[in-house]
Design brief:
Elements: E1 4-7, H1 13-20, H2 23-28, H3 37-45, E2 51-57, E3 63-71, E4 80-87, H4 96-110, E5 116-122, H5 126-134, E6 138-149, E7 152-162, E8 193-197, H6 203-210, H7 213-217, H8 227-236, E9 239-245, E10 250-257, E11 268-275, H9 284-299, E12 304-310, H10 314-322, E13 326-337, E14 340-350
Helix pairs in contact: 1-3, 6-8
Length: 352
């Protein structure tokens, strides 16, 4: 059957509501079984501009599937989008998913010039995983206990399709600034520091911390950090700590935050740690990480703590593994650095 592919519209609320609440869609995506029609209409009336959503309709106009590209927001990941796909239960196996995939990939390749399209699929959604394989998506790893479904935390298969031009992917691009720790020296005493919760007035100190080349090379930070933006970020974090030296300077920052507002992912928190390059190997990162782990374990409801780290940042990876984080996936060409696209590791650990 030939399907009409068009953009999702505000007039699709009733049909989209039926699709999103189909039992099979709820089981195999992150949708909720009970949704109000009003909430779906509100979503469509205020649809985010960074999400490009298409629908598949039968010749008589019935909406039977929806898919889209959720463009990454961080500037150094703007070559990336998260793909989502839903087909109504009674239209499974009739070519709807394939029609949407062809349209979405044409849109991504020829109109958005995306280089990396990623997705996650529930581990037992074999039909969808096979469809993604047919359209060039490759397995990158498994996120453990990622998705709450029917009272059980399910694993997610992580997949991606790459479209880099020759020389763009990591092998031929400039490596990171060295992230190695200075060699221990007996005549290099540890600088005293203490940990405290961050305050909005720490924005200038945290911005100064982000201005170092090696910090930018080993995180998703940009050169020329903005103090005002960091004030907002400190306000938005679920929990943020700073390491303060005896002279009052900020030599480290660590934070946790929720990656989104989907209740089926409400057990997940993300973590980030940055240490002043001159303080590498001085116990600052370990102190910050221990404090965050204690806070999450004892006082916050999260069950899964995850993070992203460049795959060549060996000291950071060693620190995370020391505290129980496991490598779950290698995300190829995940982030832009020095003009090339470099791999990242997804690492995670259970905290409950």
């Amino acid at each position: 059957m030939h399907y009409q592919i068009r953009r999702l519209a505000p007039t699709d609320a009733a049909a989209l509501h039926r699709l999103r609440t189909s039992p099979g869609v709820v089981r195999n995506t992150l949708q909720q079984p009970f949704q109000s029609l009003a909430s779906v209409q509100q979503l469509l009336d205020n649809f985010p501009p960074h999400i490009h959503a298409l629908v598949a309709c039968t010749p008589d106009g019935e909406l039977v599937g929806c898919g889209g590209l959720h463009l990454a927001i961080p500037p150094r990941r703007r070559h990336t989008a998260l793909l989502f796909l839903m087909v109504r239960d009674d239209w499974q196996g009739k070519g709807v998913g394939g029609a949407l995939m062809r349209a979405l990939l044409d849109y991504a390749d020829n109109w958005l010039d995306l280089k990396r399209i990623e997705l996650d699929a529930v581990h037992d959604n074999h039909r969808a995983i096979a469809l993604y394989h047919r359209y060039g998506f490759e397995h990158e790893g498994v996120a453990r206990g990622f998705n709450l479904r029917e009272g059980v935390y399910q694993d997610a298969v992580l997949m991606a399709r790459l479209r880099f031009r020759p020389g763009e992917h990591a092998a031929s691009t400039r490596p990171a600034e060295p992230a190695t720790r200075p060699a221990p020296r007996q005549d290099r005493p540890r600088q005293p520091f203490h940990l405290r919760h961050s305050e909005l007035d720490d924005a200038a100190g945290v911005a100064a911390l982000m201005a170092h080349d090696s910090v930018q090379a080993n995180t998703l930070q940009l050169p020329y950090p903005d103090e005002k933006a960091w004030r907002q970020r400190l306000s938005d974090c679920t929990y943020s700590l700073v390491a303060e030296a005896a002279d009052g300077s900020i030599i480290g920052n660590a934070a946790i935050w929720q990656p989104g507002d989907n209740p089926r992912l409400g057990h997940i928190a993300e973590l980030g740690i940055i240490v002043h390059p001159a303080q590498h190997g001085q116990g600052v990162g370990s102190a910050l990480l221990q404090a965050l782990l204690g806070q999450v374990s004892d006082y916050l409801p999260y069950r899964r703590l995850q993070l992203m780290v460049f795959s060549d940042n060996a000291p950071a990876i060693a620190l995370y593994e020391k505290y129980g984080f496991a490598r779950e996936a290698t995300l190829r060409g995940d982030s832009l650095r020095h003009g090339g696209y470099h791999d990242s590791l997804l690492m995670a650990r259970a905290v409950k």
